[in-house]
Amino acid sequence: LSSNARQACRQGAGMSEVRIRKMRDEDLPACMAILESWNMAPRPPSGDTPKPERTGIDVANGFVAEVDGRIVGTCGYIVHSPECAETASLAVDRSFKGGGVGFLLQSARLDEMRRRGIRRVRTETDRPETIRWYVERFGYRIVGTTPKKHGFSLEDVDCWTVLELDLITT
User: What would the pLDDT profile of 4-55 be if each residue is shown by its tens digit?
Assistant: First the structure.
C-alpha cells in the first residue's frame, strides 16, 4: 500500500500507523473476536444451523490490520477458480471504524487477488453503508441478492446483496 494511503488513514483516525500483513494462525483468536462483535464469526454446523454461512477462516488467504501490535481488523477471500474469488469477512474493531482500516484491508486483498490472476471478485453483504462503500470506493456493481442461511451479520436482513468486481478494469 502506498505511504500516502497509510498516512491518510493515520491522520483520519488519529492513531498510530496501521500495518497490514498476512494473517498467521496465532491471529485467529483476535480475528474471531472482531468477527463475533459484528455477528460474522464462522461456526461449525449444528442442529440449529446445519449449513452455516462460514465454517472457518482460510489463514493463507487472510489479512490483518495492526495498530501498535494490536489486531484491529481482518479480512480474507475464497478462491473458487483460477479466475474467480469471493471476499470473506471484512471486519474492523468498532473503536477503529471510520478510520480507513477497512479500505487498507480491502485494497490489500484485491492487490493479492490481482497478482494471483483473479479476474472477477464476488462479494455478499447486508449492510447498506457497506454496499455503498464497495460500489463508490472500489467500483463494484450490484448483480442480485441471495437468501441467507441463518441470522448472520444483520439478523433482521434475510438476504445478501451480491456484488461483483471486474479486477481487470479497476
Answer: 344 444 444 455 799 999 999 999 999 999 999 999 999 999 998 899 999 9
User: Quick one: pLDDT at residue 169?
Assistant: 85
| Residue 150 near residue 40 (C-beta atoms within 8 A) | no
Judged on CB neighbours under 10 Å (0-12, 13-18, 19+), 23 is buried
Cell of 2: 502506498
In the 3-class helix/strand/coil scheme, how is 18-35 assigned residue by residue?
Answer: EEEEECCHHHHHHHHHHH
How many angstroms separate the CA atoms of 128 and 134, rounded?
10
- The distance between the two most distant Cα atoms of the chain, rounded to a whole number of Å, is 49
How many CA atoms lie less than 13 Å away from 44 in the CB half-sphere? Answer: 2
Which of 54, 12, 11, 50 has its CA nearest to residue 31? 54
State the pTM of this model.
Answer: 0.89
Task: State which H helix or E strand residue 164 sits in.
Answer: strand 159-166
